[in-house]
Amino acid sequence: MADGPVADVLLRRLEAADGGLDSAELAAELGVEHQAVVGAVKSLQALGEIIEAELRSTKRWELTAEGEEIAREGSHEARVFRSVPPEGLAQSELMRLPSGKVGFSKAMSNKWIRVDKSAADGPRVFRVVDSMEDDVQRRLQLVRGGQAEKLAEKERSELRKRKLLTEVGSWRDRPFKPYNFSARGVLPDSGHLHPLLKVRTQFRQIFLEMGFTEMPTDNFIESSFWNFDALFQPQQHPARDQHDTFFLQDPAEALQLPMDYVHRVKRTHSQGGYGSQGYKYTWKLDEARKNLLRTHTTAASARALYRLARKKPFTPIKYFSIDRVFRNETLDATHLAEFHQIEGVVADHGLTLGHLMGVLREFFTKLGITQLRFKPAYNPYTEPSMEVFSYHQGLKKWVEVGNSGLFRPEMLLPMGLPENVSVIAWGLSLERPTMIKYGINNIRELVGHKVNLQMVYDSPLCRLDAEPGPPQTQEAA
Amino acid sequence: MPTVSVKRDLLFKALGRTYTDEEFDELCFEFGLELDEITSEKEIISKEQGDKKAEGASDVVLYKIDVPANRYDLLCLEGLVRGLQVFKERIKAPLYKRVMPNGEIQKLIITEETAKIRPYAVAAVLRNIKFTKDRYDSFIELQEKLHQNICRKRALVAIGAHDLDSLSGPFTFTAKRPSDIKFKPLSKTKEYTACELMNIYKTDNHLKHYLHIIENKPLYPVIYDSNGVVLSMPPIINGNHSKITLNTRNVFIECTGTDFTKAKIVLDIIVTMFSEYCENQFTVEAAEVVFPNGKSYTFPELAYRKEMVRADLINKKVGIRETPENLAKLLTRMCLKSEVIGDGNQIEIEIPPTRADIIHACDIVEDAAIAYGYNNIQMTLPKTYTIANQFPLNKLTELLRHDMAAAGFTEALTFALCSQEDIADKLGVDISATKAVHISNPKTAEFQVARTTLLPGLLKTIAANRKMPLPLKLFEISDIVVKDSSRGPAFFPGRCAEVFARGQSIGKLGVLHPDVITKFELTMPCSSLEINIEPFL
């Protein structure tokens, strides 16, 4: 801008002008926006010692609508004066005239009229002087004629107080610099919640809305017994390898186990029973005592179901939990040693695979996932088992969103649950839906101390659902 | 999930038809398999070692199929084909038979020395078998898959397959001192003692993983024939003498191990799968195994078991309404030959030796559901009426989180596992005073202990976010793991306080000691508060 045409002209004119130039005058002369001149001035100033500029604020005065009227017709007090004939006028009548009420007190204080309160027909108004000067009208006409500066500051102030004049601020007709809507604003100070935990809050809500009670999971440390054996996972199962599970060095063993239950579990594993062939291997108590960092919250579900089984008579339940689990597996972009598992459990008489699918449909609908397909799968502790798939619009393929099944009788019956009680359960990780929702590809950018706090600052509200609606599934007959 | 790699065209040939990738993917989905990857040897080598090394490698299309971990009968092409053909009702499941030999039965005698190291053995013979390159490769692959899965990396069971015509029974399974065992192992040109072999295989990428199973034992397992020829030194390596070639006609299979049940299952799987290629299809010649106590067994067991399940039980568990006849048909499609018996409501199911995974009626229910088609089942909602409750600790946590954020703090989520340093040295505390829980055999220092305090996680988060504008105000509400209460971090003297609530000490707050700050690679002053929220429940 400093080398633009306006700056050019300005510099040339300035050379010739002794007392400097007025930007507003120059703009009018050149037929350009005042802002263009201001811009040129500022750019030239920025270059250093080329020009000097001094800011002057000018006030412009304008008549209000009322002021216009008075300039035409005369002030209210003048009109009052003119309405009083030589013989005077009843005050009540005067007050009824258009300018009466407004002009009366001013005409009185100007000593143009007086009131005779003792008149026969009520208070009567009389002229005091023969004629008067309508200064107000005169002054307004001056301003209207563009000669506001001929009035004293005090006079202008007074007229402004009477709302006959307004000071025209430069905002009314100055051009304004357009907003840069792509500039970042200044963020107000605030705290922030972690996106993974925002998602966790939503999942808790979903379960509570579906009538599920939260299980206690405040124990990262678990015994192999509750983590594996109680779930009918055999002791030689690969998941019980050092390579997949974090075993504890200290304290290495769980000392407190419910021994009569432990014996029933031992028998089921090694000899069978409860309608099962069992695994037919030598079950060892030492192995069951080994402490570990829980590999799934299903261990907490086992504890909860065991507690339930001991309460007679049996009452149906719906349980859930969302908490941290630990796996000693290979780490990569989507896997860490620690992650969060979401688990839901329903125990009732006569539950079927169809019920499991129905519950899953309602659950996933609350996540905005409506297209589901189910695939046969294998878990050591559920049979039948199902993997749950949903159609990913972006990837244009079916992706796994969860794992589920009916707990095996070999797990439930030794606990003491009644034989016709079925327990359906399902689980998924918390990290996966969070990464999809928040567009994060590497789990390290979401969890742990290496996370960029800016991501946490910037993460938006977690809204998991599409449109809320009535249940999609019929109740079973 | 185990993955089986099969040549696509071979698979289609055996199935008797071709499929598009999508069609086959769909078939797998229905059956409970997953078509994980479509690739070729060339592609695999290219990915692992670069394009140069891949030159000249095979272009033949391979299907990598994920198989459920409990389906040992689907771990090879033969088993997959058989399972799918029966599922699609194109063939009937074969009837596997154990037959007695025409001449003398092969004998494997176990001596008492094996008791302490590898007490069990089973054996069988595949008579008049015809190998092609593909069948041979598949035979080797199946052994490898079984080794990795049910055999728990050969620790529980190890398989040895031998050219019977190169040997002479009876066979002896014994255990000897390593220095007393000498033979020419597979792929080697001269004889070695067991000690030498242990050393040689230390650098063998494949075998080094199994050495530990017998390495430090006084006696090593070994199998001889009647002429002193070494068949194998399980679980490490077979002898070269009896190695199987494409010309092998009679195979002697031995499985040794520490789990008798699994050894039997493994043997059954191998012989059922490959007896397909015997002249007398699906027959397996018996072998006798004599234990140290004199007891003798005939293998393979190839047991067929009968189970009785009520039709309405299956219907009730799945949530369908099929007639008993239809259910029997569905199960038969899953290689569980069934028929309706008795009052018309009972189904008698014959469980073949290939389905060792069927141990309870619920396994049968699942197979019925799979054959019915999971996605054909009507979805219903349980009538279970429940009032939900929050776990009080979590409820309190949620309330506190929101107010902490409202107070201007940002929530962090840090790891529960960390190094000993993090919770001790860096905080100016001795590790034994922390009463921390220690992990055994951590792969890295980051997995040594479970955190006893949330502070190190937050300080590490700050250190990783050095470039962020100040102030940094973080919080975390989560579990810590302690054996019992322990000392807190070092604070600046005179600038710390213990926090009491309702007369009980709940934690500490203060300005962190400069040493602590430095050890976490921070430079600015930090103050912290750590309290236990459980007293507020």
TrEMBL record, chain A:
It comes from the Eukaryota. GO terms for cellular component: cytoplasm. InterPro entries: aa-tRNA-synth_II, aa-tRNA-synth_II/BPL/LPL, Phe-tRNA-synth_IIc_asu, Phenylalanyl-tRNA_Synthase, PheRS_DBD1, PheRS_DBD2, PheRS_DBD3, WH_DNA-bd_sf. It is found in: Cytoplasm. Residues 198-468 form the Aminoacyl-transfer RNA synthetases class-II family profile domain. Its main location: cytoplasm. Keywords: Acetylation, Aminoacyl-tRNA synthetase, ATP-binding, Cytoplasm, Ligase, Magnesium, Metal-binding, Nucleotide-binding, Phosphoprotein, Protein biosynthesis. Its EC number is 6.1.1.20. One of its GO terms (biological process) is phenylalanyl-tRNA aminoacylation. One of its GO terms (molecular function) is phenylalanine-tRNA ligase activity. It holds the Pfam family tRNA-synt_2d. Heterotetramer; dimer of two heterodimers formed by FARSA and FARSB. Belongs to the class-II aminoacyl-tRNA synthetase family. Phe-tRNA synthetase alpha subunit type 2 subfamily. NCBIfam families: pheS, PRK04172.1. PANTHER family: PHENYLALANINE--TRNA LIGASE ALPHA SUBUNIT, PHENYLALANYL-TRNA SYNTHETASE. This is Phenylalanine--tRNA ligase alpha subunit. It comes from Equus caballus (Horse).
UniProtKB/TrEMBL annotation, chain B:
It comes from Equus caballus (Horse). The keyword Plastid does not apply. It is found in: Cytoplasm. The gene is FARSB. One of its GO terms (biological process) is phenylalanyl-tRNA aminoacylation. It is an enzyme of class 6 (ligase). Its main location: cytoplasm. Its cofactor is Mg(2+). One of its GO terms (molecular function) is magnesium ion binding. This is Phenylalanine--tRNA ligase beta subunit. SUPFAM superfamilies: Class II aaRS and biotin synthetases, PheT/TilS domain, Putative DNA-binding domain.
